[in-house]
Amino acid sequence: MGMQLGKLTGKIIGSGVEAHKVLGSGPLQSVCEKNHCYDFSLRGLAFKRHHSLAVAYRGIKLDRDCVPLLRARLDIVVAGEIPD
After folding, report:
1. Residue 68 falls within a domain, yes or no?
2. Helices and strands of the chain, counted as H and E runs
3. How far apart, in whole angstroms, are the C-alpha atoms of residue 50 and residue 4?
4. Is residue 45 part of a domain?
5. Which residues contact 3 (CB under 8 A, 6 or more apart)?
6. Quick check: 40 and 13 in contact, CB under 8 A?
7. How many domains, the chain?
8. What distance in Å separates the CA atoms of residue 80 and residue 75, rounded to the nearest whole number?
9. What is the C-alpha separation between 21 and 78, in angstroms, rounded?
10. What is the reported pTM?
11. 15: helix, coil or strand?
């Protein structure tokens, strides 16, 4: 990770504080997510939206084909990679 963890954390938290100042508490999750992504772009932070996760149960990798209701994902990943 190119950016120091403390500096990165400060930018992420700053984005959340700014969103709260503008939107207040209680907006829909989808509104907050879009707002955070826009703010991350303004702050020069690399991010991914809707990153799917591999879910394993007792050594078997589950996916949407074998478990249709499985929707394991991260809404936003900032400045990093999540290994499968």
Report:
1. yes
2. 2, 4
3. 24
4. yes
5. 79
6. no
7. 1
8. 13
9. 21
10. 0.63
11. helix
Structure tokens at 32: 């907050």
In the structure, what pLDDT confidence band is assigned to residue 84 with cuts at 50, 70 and 90? very low
> 77: which 2 tokens?
């990943």
Q: What is the pLDDT of residues 5-44, one digit of tens each?
A: 788 888 888 888 888 888 887 767 778 888 888 988 998 8
Identify the domain containing residue 25 by its residue range: 5-78
Whether 47 has a pLDDT exceeding 80, the answer reads yes
Alpha helices by DSSP H, listed for the chain, are 5-23, 29-42
Note the pLDDT of residue 71.
Answer: 58
How does pLDDT run across 59-76, given as a tens digit for each residue? 777 665 655 555 577 788
Residue 16 lies in a domain: yes
**Residue 83 maps to a domain:** no
Residue 14, SS3 per DSSP: helix
